[in-house]
Amino acid sequence: MRKIFLLIAATASMITFTNCKKSASVSTGAPVTIGTITTGNNHAAQVAVYSGFPETFESGTKAAYADATVTLTTGVWDLNDALVGSTTSDRKNGSKSVRMQNTGTVTMNFNQTNGATQVTIVHGVYGTDASSTWGLWYSTNSGSTWTQTGSNVTTSSTTLATATFTMTVSGNVRFQLRKLSGGRLNIDDFTITDNSGTGGGGGTATRDNNMALGNPSGATTVVSNANNYLMVKSQYTLSYNNSKGMANWVSWHLSTAWKGTATRCDCFNQDATLPSGFFRASTSNYTSTGFDRGHLCPSDDRDGSDTDNRATFLMTNMSPQAPNMNQITWEAFEAYCRTLITTGNELYIVAGGYGTGGSGSSGGTTNSIASGSINVPSHFWKIAVILPIGTSDVSRISSATRVIALDMPNTQSVNTHTWDYYRTTVDAIESATGYDFLSNVSTSIQASLESTVDSGPTH
């Protein structure tokens, strides 16, 4: 293994807004601090997800919108103007999620006893419906009165996103989600973090060095090194390849500290920070090519602020991906990674493409777009290192650390299989790309981790 000890210190500003709204009747029981929707790094000091959570709604059956209770893994919930959906138009992780309409509610009919410091909820637009708004309320007196925590959330995308609400609530607590306006809404993976500090990884979720595990290609900021040019942004780090018109790889850190409720901007732009004379891709280079402008660092991994989200739409973070790969199989793994951070984990992720010749929605094999300026990879790969939340992350990586490595063909038929079918070894990706991953980890631990195919859970 090569040793590359290039650590780029990346700092990011932390932005938290609070818009506390109280219901007409506010409880006066256990002491509480009215919560916020977190868009930066204001997270609970301890991460302790309640047993049985996240509630995935996979065990429930309710086919009608009429008000009724349903018994789920975590307890009995009341669904009013809401049902458990399982159609292809329902946005979901797994096979089911809740679908709400009009001004429906989803309410816990049971208490959690150790209060709450954080709630995360996965959400998306049902089918082709209009955007909707919704909010989260809590009760400390078994549902007699309710108080809103954080601000209202607007759901406008069919791509699942995660809303994170932070609060300090003591004693008994239950939650209610209220739909306020707009089209039908899907919610999934409802997670509650308690006050006991006994679950998850413990510690504070922070925004850490996006390239802490190493510089896979030895990229530099020397302009003459145009095909391995290092670009360090607050949100991610990448190696740019001028001859291919795209990144060799993008590396980023993921934890709840990066999460919030910023709206997906869909503001694809040239990267003005590329040196003069470098090829700068524009969104028009992808028009009518049969390929998506595929994110390497996902938009939903960086919704802590509008600035963070806009950064993911720079064209240096895009690669030509077959639509079925980008929107289905690749996205499903992105969503899975985000579920891991709701249960006390943080991740280090690096992704890129290799080879030449992909097959998009136009059929056949395409080697390049933009008159030859942008290479179309034959494969895309991703490596995710998963750790409990903590400090001194590199030193905490051991031979028991979970590492997921994927290698997918850049084709429309890739969604014949789910993402886990494409699991491989880090060694195999190193062989295909010529890069050296996890180079800041000790050689002996690298050897163990990089030769193993992950066999862990996929939901």
CATH architecture of the largest domain: 3-Layer(aba) Sandwich
Helix content: under 10%
**DSSP strand tally:** 21
CATH-defined topology of the largest domain: Extracellular Endonuclease, Chain A
Q: N- to C-terminal separation?
A: 32 Å
Rg over C-alpha atoms, rounded to the nearest angstrom: 22 Å
Shape: globular
User: What fraction strand?
Assistant: 25-35%
Q: What is the averaged pLDDT score? A: 88
Strand-pairing-aware structural class: mainly beta
Main sheet? 10 strands, antiparallel
Explain briefly what this protein structure is:
This protein is mainly β. The chain has helices at 306-311, 323-340, 393-396, 426-433, 443-450, and strands at residues 32-37, 68-71, 76-85, 97-108, 116-125, 132-139, 147-155, 161-169, 174-182, 185-193, 229-232, 237-241, 246-254, 292-295, 318-321, 345-354, 368-369, 374-375, 379-388, 402-409, 423-424.
